[in-house]
Specification:
The chain has 329 residues and is mainly alpha-helical. The protein has one domain. It is built from 13 helices and two strands; from the N terminus they run H-H-H-H-H-H-H-H-H-E-E-H-H-H-H. It has helices at residues 15-20, 23-49, 53-61, 65-83, 85-93, 99-116, 119-132, 137-165, 178-201, 219-243, 250-267, 275-284, 290-322, and strands spanning 206-209, 212-215. The protein has a two-stranded antiparallel ribbon with strand order 1-2. Helix 4 packs across helix 6, helix 7 (119-132) packs antiparallel against helix 8 and helix 12 (275-284) runs antiparallel to helix 13 (290-322). The model has no long low-confidence stretch (mean pLDDT 83).
């Protein structure tokens, strides 16, 4: 019987693993996140105090009805496209829940996700609704995973190509240089292409992770993910472009919006509230007066975030009251 080696002879874990083992590290990391978020909120509040809100209101009221109607139509198309995400999950998992029910769940969870974050909308709300409709938890988790990856797969490809080939003109004072943005774009595009290549040619088609088996989709499914997600991101940018009355090229609006997504993820502000507005003001206020720009972005919030949230809340109550208790089979 061999004796265990002395503790001094065992390899020491990396520093970050040793730090995570201490309770103080968790408190320090949480405190750092709180301080960072507080600094961002304070900066946004300071920027908001410098805005002529009377001029913003006047610009919003002066928005032509035809522009509002067109933007509302594009926003509706965007939500309709996103509602199809879980149809890919339906095909991927083979579950037999009605397609209309899957689309309704996707719409409700997406609206809550936009306004309250991924944990509430993309996670808890989706899980609750699918469970309420009788879908097994394991199947629901697979649908959720595919849907979330579909969303970000399209972003990787679109943002990567945009940052690499059509980079937005960044202000000199920004901490990110145009060269760094191109590098980021190249990295994002490579990740998207790597996924496509894996779906098309990987010999290994599944992985086991925490008791769940993850299956790699085929190339047709990957291309469908890319197409539907790319269209979704372009429609979101299209809402803002229409509200700006097409006074800025669509490519420029889309580029600024995609940059704002990166900034929103980095700041971790719920729903990116104020972050997208700050990015658009910083990058496009030389083309459009600030009050008109902010008015368009506030209307965009109302059309794409707040209006659908009201409809989703009503739909959620309807699902809760009428959903069957039995599994779909």
């Amino acid at each position: 019987m061999t004796s265990a080696p002395p503790a001094s002879a065992l390899p020491r874990p990396p520093l970050w693993q040793r730090l995570q083992g201490h309770g103080h590290w968790r408190w320090l990391s949480r405190g750092a996140l709180v301080l960072f978020a507080s600094a961002v909120v304070g900066l946004l509040a300071w920027q908001a105090s410098k805005v002529d809100w009377a001029a913003v209101r006047a610009a919003a009221e002066a928005t032509p009805a035809r522009v509002l109607l067109a933007a509302a139509l594009v926003a509706a198309c965007g939500h309709a496209v996103y509602s199809c995400f879980d149809l890919l999950g339906r095909r991927y998992t083979g579950h037999r829940l009605h397609a209309g029910a899957a689309m309704l769940v996707t719409f409700i969870s997406y609206a809550f996700n936009l306004n309250f974050g991924a944990i509430v909308g993309g996670g808890a709300m989706r899980l609750r609704l699918y469970t309420r409709l009788g879908l097994p938890t394991a199947t629901t988790l697979r649908v959720m995973a595919l849907s979330m990856w579909t969303n970000w797969f399209g972003y990787l490809a679109l943002a990567g190509a945009t940052f690499l080939m059509l980079p937005v003109a960044l202000p000199p004072a920004w901490p990110v240089s145009p060269a760094a943005l191109r590098v980021l774009g190249g990295a994002l595009l490579l990740l998207a292409l790597a996924y496509l290549a894996a779906c098309a040619g990987s010999r290994r088609r599944h992985w086991d992770w925490r008791g769940h088996r993850l299956h790699l989709p085929g190339p047709r499914m990957a291309l469908a993910q890319l197409a539907i997600s790319t269209v979704n991101w372009l429609l979101i940018a299209g809402v803002i472009w229409v509200l700006l009355d097409q006074r800025v090229p669509f490519a420029a609006v889309a580029s600024v919006y995609l940059v704002g997504v990166v900034v929103g993820i980095a700041t971790r502000v719920p729903a990116g509230l104020g972050v997208q507005e700050a990015v658009f003001v910083a990058l496009l206020s030389h083309n459009i007066p600030r009050p008109e720009l902010l008015a368009a972005l506030l209307i965009y919030r109302a059309l794409y975030y707040w209006g659908p949230l009201l409809l989703a809340a009503l739909a959620y109550l309807a699902v809760e009251s009428r959903a069957p208790q039995r599994a779909p089979g």
